[in-house]
Amino acid sequence: MKQEVTIRDISDLGRAAEEFLQKTGDSRIIAFFAPMGAGKTTFTAAICSCLGVRDAVCSPTFTIVNEYRTAAGEPLYHFDFYRINKLSEAIDIGLDDYLYSGALCIIEWPENIGELLPEETLRVSISVNPDMSRTISWDDGNGNSRDQA
Fold first, then answer.
1. What angle (nearest 5°) sits at the alpha carbon of residue 101, between those of residues 90 and 145?
2. Where does the chain cross the membrane (predicted)?
3. Within 10 Å of residue 142's Cβ, how many Cβ atoms?
4. What is the pLDDT of residues 28-56, one digit of tens each?
5. Cα separation of 143 and 62, whole Å?
């Protein structure tokens, strides 16, 4: 079944992130499919804030992965595969170790490593609406939807 969360404006981010986390439950690998400027990093920062991450959250465009700690002390890995040109580059950073660690993994530009994503990856789409609000949508079929959002 398709699920959605709407972000009306920047002031609505916290509420939307909390709703998203409640609706996605135990999903540990979340892949955000969205065009440039849709708000992938901004929404990730809101999710991190809801989870009590104290560090400044920024896009790991050049580092590929940033590690944060939640208020509970759990690791949270934030990936940005925009600059990945070959799957071997993702493999070389130890991607499997991160993805199968049990920690929450949030992935930007997952289409660049699609073949490496586990079946249980929750594929999430972020759409920019004409009024500049955002719609976050996904299939809640236990994250097993193989369709890219």
1. 70
2. none
3. 12
4. 999 999 999 999 999 999 999 999 999 99
5. 28
Q: Which of 96, 86, 91 is nearest to 77 (CA)?
A: 96
Q: Which of 53, 114, 109 is nearest to 80 (CA)?
A: 109
What's the CA gap between 116 and 29, in Å, rounded? 12
Tokens 């955000």 sit on residue: 32
Helix (H, G, I), strand (E, B) or coil at 126: strand
CA distances, 60 to each of 2, 25, 87 (Å): 29, 25, 17
Q: Are 76 and 70 in contact, with CB atoms under 8 Å apart?
A: yes
- Summarised one tens digit per residue, pLDDT across range 131-149 is 999 999 999 874 444 344 4
pLDDT of residue 80: 97
